[in-house]
Amino acid sequence: MVTEEQVRQSLDEVLVPGVKRSLVMLNLVRQIKVSGQEVTITLASSALSEAAQDWIRGKAKTVVEDLPGIDSARVEFVGVRPVELNQIQNVIAVMSGKGGVGKSLVAGLTAVALKRQGSEVGILDADITGPSIPKMFGISERPSGSNTGILPILSRSGIEVMSFNLLLPQEDDAVIWRGPLISKAITQFWEEVVWGKLDYLIVDLPPGTADAPLTVMQTLPVSGIIIVFTPQDLTTMIVKKAVSMAQKMGKPVLGVVENMSYLYIAEIDKRVELFGKSKGEEMARAANAPFLGQLPIDPELARLCDEGNIERYNSDAFTAMAQALMSALSQITPAKGK
Ligand SMILES: Nc1ncnc2c1ncn2[C@@H]1O[C@H](COP(=O)(O)OP(=O)(O)O)[C@@H](O)[C@H]1O
Ligand SMILES: [Mg+2]
């Protein structure tokens, strides 16, 4: 007799239209009942339009009825809130004292590094003031959904992305929202987006230590925080503020990343510290967390981000940062037997 597991495996071939992740990975499969030659499958209808449900019903029926010994498959839909559906192992928030220091870049690279080492990853772009995540990943499609939820967009390498920018009528529309509204919107991204099963959700926080980042930390089960800064920050005060906020919330700082640390000039084989000496060690001490590394100002990186190809980036500095990050994450993440 066909087992429940075999049915589940065949459902893993059914990709949900719009997001292109499988029913199983989006955790939409609620129940499988095999009795003799008949199978009844219960799926969550979250974020699925009538048309999407019809398509999935047909597809699921076909793949399951193809299993040897199965005569007929019945597909039923039930309403489930996305927040009850989602299984997210770790929420990592990326924070900075101010804007323009490369916070979104570090959030993006963190997701890329985790995806490359085989994890399932999503990015929640909570930075309404400058949502650069979709641009870096070359995403401009409008997310699909229904009145029961929203589906994220999948990047080229398979990272789930959700951003306010993707929901605006025009990509360039300025968003002038007040703190409480931003907080509410972020909460909705947590509760109403069908993220499904993820090892990591990276949250690109709005800059600073005001209301919006505070709400994220209160509402989302953040497991660790990465703090980004540049050597031009005049004092450690900003980092200390971020650290003290993290501590007040009882959230561990995973580490600190220094961006735009230097510019390497190949012709003279020299690193020029445009914004002054590195503050990495000093910041790490202030945060009582590891220094995860320095990223240079890299024209290649800037070009890839502009082209929407951040997923193609490679450099020694990035590799070193990714390694330090993995080791910091292994402190908070229970080892997964994959
Ligand atoms: N190390 C770097 N090398 C090259 N370009 C960078 C680097 N860091 C950031 N940038 C560029 O600077 C801009 C601002 O970075 P971003 O990550 O959006 O900052 P923030 O999120 O802190 O406001 C982006 O266009 C990004 O491509
Ligand atoms: Mg940003």
Helix content: 25-40%
What gross morphology would you assign?
elongated
Domains, number: 2
Which second-level CATH architecture of the largest domain applies?
Answer: 3-Layer(aba) Sandwich
User: What's the β-strand tally?
Assistant: 15
**Which spans of ≥5 residues are poorly predicted at pLDDT below 50?**
none
Number of helices: 11
The largest sheet has its strands arranged as: 8-9-5-10-4-11-12-15
Major sheet summary line:
8 strands, mixed
Mean pLDDT: 91
Encode the helix/strand succession as letters.
HEEHEHEHEHEEEEHEHEHEEEHEHH
According to CATH, the fold-level topology of the largest domain is Rossmann fold
The SS-based structural class is alpha/beta
How much of the polypeptide forms β-strand, as a percent range? 15-25%
Based on CA atoms alone, the radius of gyration comes out at 22 Å
Query: Which kinds of small molecule does this entry bind, naming each only once?
Result: adenosine-5'-diphosphate, magnesium ion
The CATH superfamily label of the largest domain reads P-loop containing nucleotide triphosphate hydrolases
Distance between the termini: 28 Å
What's the CATH class label of the largest domain? Alpha Beta
